[in-house]
Design brief:
alpha/beta, Dna Ligase, domain 1, Nucleotidyltransferase, domain 5
Length: 697
């Protein structure tokens, strides 16, 4: 059906506390938003309930919806909580301890009781297969098929659900893995099978085995969840669903079920993608993306109109903010820093009697004390409510009344332990969580070599607009933009994503002597694997954008930098141009070059992207009219000022050309925007609120 008949698209973002849904009319730009508490026992239930409510409230028929894009935390949660399938790992004989040996490094050399992340597949579920392929791809020992058959029958008897196969040097020659998979399917057809040569065809045995094991571990869980969700959506009349990938592109249901690890960080990736798109539309290609929800805050740098991408990511960290304490994920992922600071972050007095906030969260169940669902420990949301930033009678547009008295009691109890009043304790929580987020943003920008002062920040999420002003003041940012649907902006970002997939393979070679014919063959094979994914989704291959990049380093270095290169460099076999591209990226990253050092190529990457969808963010005409002033209420602004009577405006009644002087509060259904003293705000051409800071510190 055409977009004229199907003008609507739906984005669904399941967070740790709330599930956000957005309905967008691509023709008019009309937006409708639904926000409801996540159902942790069955996340699909909130999706179904929210979708039904959204359709009923807007009078939209399911058949007028072109597609629905979905982001989920299911994979991350399954890995963190170790709630996956009973999984076996099959390795080359002699390499049973690959997951236990890991990198043989300590992420904290001074911690004598260092806690390391447990592999998702324990050693007693790791089995050896007699076979051997050399680093050149030559077969030294063929697989013992009898041993594989016996092992398959054992796995079936012991009720294993999934198998990860990671054989030595399978990235160079996948034949043994494919033969083992064929034997497993013959003897145990119900097993879910993940091959390292398909999940991550790269050198470094631990990283490859770890990711393959994670994929197998979550595959049965994710496939079951996707099947239930697809059935629920079909019952509502939906056809055509996609899932957000962690690299900023969307996946078909089939690809998501086969490679569920690619769904990691799907929700945060959508938010960064939306911020980047917004920046491009308003002519601001370099900015900070800041998303603060109910459980965590996420920040991302956007450069040149696109979020930065990394292949150095970790999940299920033992120490949440310590690099090296988690399980490595060597897939392309939007480069973000995650901070344990959300509306539900718990505030406590630590062993020294000092105030600490997060990273533990009250989540959706029981949630903050003010939700009245059984929470007993005060949170950031409780503090913001007592300070006057939130309206107890207008949370979720008045659908969810907040218990201000309960929040004050909980904060009073915490304050008594700290020697503070309830209000001063609340202000301490507000200040601590804001300072933590500002510091994390500063460090993230500095690590990337970016001077953040004077930049623009796009702030969104349920709690982000409340704290953005103070963060901007601390960092010295010039302005902050609060886009339309600010409380559900990540869900809106899902609708801007392109169907995309990427592959990689390792071929380690000196760049100066690289066999370019072999490189051509590698890319011919990778793009040949990518083409069917798009044709099955109804996308003509001649419309697909192809991108290539190469992971390179100076010879004998331990790690690489990813270098985007034009495809013509490979077609011409231009090694000198590849070296120049490496120099440019290395210089930008480290500020220097190593003169005379030979360059080595390690991993060759191919990505394919479908044409971008129609995405109309222009503000619809006929917006709400009438007086925007709703009244005023006391808001605690600073330690030395106390509470000040601050005007409250209806965000939906602001008209183009208006200028709003701070301090002022703008209320909308899914979030609250705070414009502080010394700042003023206007509406941009997309209907977003632009806060300009006249004074920065």
């Amino acid at each position: 059906m055409s977009e004229r008949v199907q003008p609507y698209r739906v984005g669904v973002d399941i967070g740790g506390t709330f599930t956000d849904l957005v309905l967008l009319n691509n023709q008019s730009g009309a937006l409708a938003v639904e926000k409801l508490l996540t159902t942790p026992d069955d996340p699909a239930r909130a999706v179904q309930d929210g979708t039904r409510r959204l359709l009923e409230r807007t009078g939209t028929r399911p058949e007028s919806i072109a597609d629905i894009i979905h982001a989920t935390t299911l994979v991350s949660n399954a890995l963190i909580e170790r709630k996956g399938a009973k999984t076996a790992l099959l390795v080359t004989a002699g390499f049973r301890d690959v997951l236990q040996c890991a990198r043989e490094s300590r992420y904290n050399v001074y911690d004598l009781a260092l806690e390391v992340p447990e592999p998702v597949v324990p050693r007693h579920r790791t089995f050896e297969i007699p076979e051997r392929i050399l680093a050149t791809g030559e077969v030294r020992v063929p697989p013992d098929e009898g041993a594989v058959r016996r092992l398959a029958r054992r796995l079936r008897r012991e009720r294993y659900e999934a198998v990860a196969v990671c054989l030595l040097h399978a990235y160079r020659n996948p034949d043994h893995e494919r033969r083992v998979a064929a034997l497993l399917r013959t003897e145990a057809p119900d097993l879910f099978i993940s091959l390292s040569s398909e999940v991550l065809a790269q050198a470094r045995e631990f990283e490859r085995a770890c990711l393959t094991a994670m994929n197998a571990f979550v595959q049965p869980v994710v496939k079951g969840y996707l099947a239930r969700l697809e059935a629920d959506l079909a019952a509502l009349g939906f056809r055509g669903s996609y899932y957000m990938g962690s690299q900023g592109g969307i996946l078909t249901p089939e690809a998501a079920a086969q490679f569920p690890v690619r769904l990691l960080e799907s929700g945060p990736a959508a938010g960064a993608l939306a911020a980047a798109l917004y920046g491009r539309l308003i002519g601001c290609p370099d900015l900070l993306s800041f998303d603060m929800g109910g459980t965590t805050a996420k920040a991302c740098l956007v450069r040149g109109g696109a979020p930065l991408i990394t292949t150095d990511f970790e999940v299920a960290r033992v120490k949440r903010f310590m690099r090296g304490s988690g399980l490595p994920v060597r897939l392309p992922i939007v480069d973000m820093i995650e901070i344990g600071a959300g509306g539900g972050s718990l505030a406590r007095a630590d062993a020294l009697g000092l105030l600490s906030v997060g990273p533990e969260s009250a989540g959706a169940d029981p949630g903050p004390v003010c939700y009245g669902r059984g929470g007993t420990e005060p949170t950031v949301t409780d503090a913001d409510l007592l300070l006057g930033y939130l309206n107890a009678a207008y949370f979720l547009g008045g659908e969810m009344a907040l218990d201000a008295a309960g929040a004050e009691t909980a904060l009073g109890d915490l304050g008594a332990r700290l020697g503070l009043s309830a209000v001063r304790a609340a202000w301490g929580i507000h200040e601590v969580v804001t300072a933590n987020m500002a510091e994390a943003l500063r460090v993230h920008a500095v690590e990337k070599g970016v001077n953040y002062r004077g930049m623009t920040m796009v702030a969104f999420g349920g709690a982000g607009p409340v704290h953005a002003y103070r963060i901007a003041r601390i960092l010295g940012l010039a302005r902050v933009i609060f886009p339309r649907a600010v409380g559900a902006f990540s869900a809106l970002g899902l609708l801007s994503a392109r169907l995309a997939f990427d592959l990689s393979t390792s071929y380690v070679t000196d760049l100066a002597s690289a066999d370019m014919d072999r490189v051509h063959d590698l890319y011919r094979d990778m793009f040949g694997q990518l083409e069917p994914l798009f044709t099955k989704a109804g996308v003509a291959w001649n419309l697909v954008e192809r991108r290539i990049s190469v992971d390179m380093r100076y010879k004998r270095q331990g790690f690489e930098v990813t270098v985007p290169v034009p495809e013509v460099y490979l077609e011409d076999g231009n090694r000198a141009a590849l070296a120049e591209a490496f120099d440019a990226v290395y210089q930008a990253s480290y500020g220097r070059l190593v003169a005379g050092a030979p360059v080595e190529a390690v991993t060759w990457r191919a990505a394919a992207l479908a044409p971008p969808p129609r995405f109309n963010l222009r503000m619809e005409t006929g917006a709400a009219t009438g007086d925007a002033i709703k009244g005023s209420r006391p808001v605690y602004l600073r330690e030395d000022q106390g509470s000040v009577e601050v005007p409250v405006l209806d965000r939906y009644r602001l008209q183009p050309g208006v200028r709003i002087e701070g301090p002022v509060i703008l209320e909308e259904r899914e979030s609250t925007i705070y414009i502080g003293p010394g700042a003023w705000a206007t509406l941009d051409e997309l209907g977003g609120v632009v806060m300009t800071l006249c004074e920065v510190s």
